Amino acid sequence: MNYISTRGAAAGERHTFSDILLGGLAKDGGLYLPAAYPRVSADELTRWRALPYADLAFEILSKFSDDIPAADLRELTRRTYTAQTYCNVRDDEQAAQITPLKTLGVENGAPLALLELSNGPTLAFKDMAMQLLGNLFEYTLAKHGETLNILGATSGDTGSAAEYAMRGKRGVRVFMLSPHKKMSAFQTAQMYSLQDPNIFNIAIEGVFDDCQDIVKAVSNDHAFKAAHKIGTVNSINWARVVAQVVYYFKGYFAATKSNDERVSFAVPSGNFGNVCAGHIARMMGLPIEKLVVATNENDVLDEFFRTGIYRVRKAAETYHTSSPSMDISKASNFERFVFDLLGRDPARVLQLFRDVEEKGGFDLAASGDFARVKAFGFVSGSSTHTDRVDAIRDVFERYDTMIDTHTADGLKVAREHLQSGIPMIVLETAQPIKFGETIREALLREPGRPAAFVGLEALPQRFEVLPADAQQVKAFVASKTGA
Ligand SMILES: *Cc1c(COP(=O)(O)O)cnc(C)c1O
Description:
Strand order of the largest sheet: 3-4-14-9-10-13
Bound molecules: pyridoxal-5'-phosphate
CATH architecture of the largest domain: 3-Layer(aba) Sandwich
Family: Belongs to the threonine synthase family.
Number of helices: 19
Number of strands: 15
Number of domains: 2
Protein name: Threonine synthase
Structural class: alpha/beta
Largest sheet: 6 strands, mixed
CATH topology of the largest domain: Rossmann fold
Keywords: Amino-acid biosynthesis, Lyase, Pyridoxal phosphate, Threonine biosynthesis
Helix content: 40-55%
Oligomer: single chain
Distance between the termini: 35 Å
CATH class of the largest domain: Alpha Beta
């Protein structure tokens, strides 16, 4: 499997899965994609239906990473996708499913279900990919005798998923910046209670943007970055995207009896990483009818799928909402889909994303390309705070099921795209306990708390407070990496 850049510069070069695993953007600023998507045969689809999650993950990942010996990859997926790791289930008997499908009911003739992706250690879907990434990083670094220091900024979900994936991993340290005293007590405790010596929580005296600016400043210091082997695990990481392809297959098998049936997926979206995996599953031949892109008030993606206009937002136009993990001003994985939409023409992708940088966006409305969005199965919609509160209340009353704010956005938009006879699977991206304030507002009661999280806020916490100053952060990192 050879990987190419969406902007074309690497066209003559060869990149394996392992080559791009630890990196971020391609040299030309584009994103990596396989030179061609592997197709799944009818026989494979039939055989895969019966596989446990870990073995399904092996089958799918091995199509994208033929440079990793099969026995090693099988061991990695079996070690990653265990009932012990994904134990925070509604129903204990379902833990072995890893991503259980919870049937809600039939609406407008369409069976409606939730695919639970948030049963992992941090109760958000990012664990699905990040846990694999932790094992892949450890494996690859050991093979090459290397080490990696991951530097990141978080306002909650991504940082904790990264820490829980990398804790205790040989060859990896994590330096995670978060705004001091600005996260919820639950989120703070989730991260700061980790006592692993390779995890460093740095509480910055500032806001999330200060944390992000420091990460950028350190990353732009190429000498420091090289000397201290600084890397990232952001959402453009290809391995994260491809690991997410697996649960689209798993959800399809759970919702259907035969491979002649089609299903739709509704995906709460921010950086377009999750739904990009759905697009890839569809390109591989999974019978997906519609991919429903659901946004909150930050509707960059909904605007594109409705109008053909992609217009990134400025910081002042990016709202802080009650589904905060979807508060984005531009969708960092979107370029991967645009590449396919334009018939994989890197020169045009380069031009369009130059327009994004220089003019703040692009307009495909008048071009023939936009008409093809439908052929790729994409539809969209957006949701507001009132919509999500209503959806949380409605699902609780009608189906006795509590959903989180992001999943509520997915459900609200899913309902606008139901088709009789076609199952609609809403991806559940987090558990309600992570966003308790809105649950209390909607239901006037406390969200359910998985057993492993009882007493979390009372555990001892380990973190370092630093001023919002890149030099001091660098000095701290240097003192721990000793280079
Ligand atoms: C990250 C996240 C999303 C958005 O996923 P993308 O891959 O960025 O589109 C949605 N919901 C939750 C809970 C998340 O943590």
